[in-house]
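Fold this sequence, please.
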Amino acid sequence: MLYNNIAPVNNSCRMHYNMKDTDQEKWEKVLEDNLKLFKAPLNVIMNTDCKISTDNLERAATALTMAISQTNEKAAKVQNPSPAVKPWWNSDLMRAAAHTCHLRNLQLEC
């Protein structure tokens, strides 16, 4: 669903995690262990004495993303939404939001 012409973020792993119910200490420990696996690309950006190339920054960002993704897979609780849950954003709210946006635009024109 688009809202204000903004597409929702695509969750590439197709998994939703319930971070609220995840054991934070366990998650942090697993992240710490995973970051050690990606030490080389991350160390490059930790050195503040030299310039960081775009390629090194990209490698570090990818390494950090992979470390967090692997941490979530190992330590985060998977979200299991109930099929009976009623979506909170419905057509009435969509119309109300559009009306509010219209009124705001009218006000700006004055």
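Residues 17-83 form one domain. The mean pLDDT is 85.
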